[in-house]
Amino acid sequence: MPQNSKWILMVLIGFASITIPLNALVLIADPYSQFSLPSKYTSGIYKKIRFSGPGLARNAKYEIAVLGASAARPYSPEIIAELTKKKAINLAIDGGTAFEQKLMAEAVLKQKPYVTIVWQQAWLIHKWPEKSTRLGTNNFPYELYTKNPLNIVKYLNNPKSIYLSINSLLNTIPQDFTKTLGVTPWEKRVEVDDLEKNVQYYKGVAYKKALLEHPIHKQNKFNPITFDRRFAANVTSVVTTAPDARFIFILPPYPSLMNDVFFKIFPNDINYITRLRSSLETLTRTYKNVTVIDFQDRSNFLQNKRMYKDLLHFKNSYASVLLEEVFSRSNMLRN
C-alpha cells in the first residue's frame, strides 16, 4: 500500500475512533430529547425549550400544546390536565420571536396534526422581522426542528451536544453554564410582588435608554403592511396548513400601568396591539378551527396590581384563573 494511502487510512481510523464514541455518547445522553423523552428532568437542561422543545414535541404524549413566550410559561400541563382531562405540554419559549414560535408550532403539527394548540400572542413578538430569532441566524438550532439524516449528523457532532452529554451523564452540569443558556424552569420561579419596583425600573433613565437602543425598539415606527406580512408568515401560514388542528389564541392581560409607563416610551406599540387583535379576529372569521380569548380589556385584570410580577408577566398563581376561562369559552372544561 502506498505511503500516502496508509497515512490517509490512519487519519480516517483516528477520526472514526474519536467521532464514533462521541456520537454514541450524544445518542445515549440525548441532551435535547431528539430521540426519546428524558427519564426525569434532573439536570434542568431539558427546560431549555428553544433547544429541547422540538424533540419533546415529537416524543411526548399530549393532546394540548401551549405555545408563546415567557408570559405563557405559567400555563402548566398539570393545571390544563385538571381542567380538561387531557395531557398537555408547555413549549413556550422565553423571549421567543414569532418565527421561533412558528417553528415550534410546525414541529408539533408535523407529529400531531389533530392537536389543540393554545397559543398566547404578545404584540412584542411581531416587532421582530419575520425570520428573526433571539439567538441570531447563525446560533439558532434549526437542525433540531427538522428530523432528517443530515440534521441528525449535525446534532450528534455538535460541540454543545457533546459537552452537555458528558456533563449530563456525570450529572455535573455547571450552574453558570445553565444560566448562560437561560435555563429558568417555570416550576421553580419564585413569585415576588415586584410590580411597583419594575415600574420604577422602567421609568429609570438608564433602562429607558437601553430599551430605546434595543434592536426591535430602535426604530419606533409602525407599518401596517409590514405587520400584516409578518403575521401572515408566522401565524396565518401555520393555521392554513393545519385544518385538523384546533387553535386557541390568547391575548394575555397587562396591568393598566402599561399605559403610564411602557406606552409612554413606545406610543406606537399600541398600534401593534390593535392590529394584532384585528388580525386574530380575521382568523376566527375565516377558519372554523380558530378561537380567540382576549383578556386585555378586562378591568378586573387591568386594575389588579397584585396579579403581576412585572409589566409583561402575570404571576403563576393566576394561570389557573385564566385557563379556566379559556377552556370554558372553548367548551373544553371537564368535571
From TrEMBL:
It comes from the Bacteria. SUPFAM superfamilies: SGNH hydrolase (SSF52266). The chain crosses the membrane at residues 7-29. Keywords: Membrane, Transmembrane, Transmembrane helix. The keyword Membrane applies. This is Uncharacterized protein. It comes from Kiloniella spongiae.
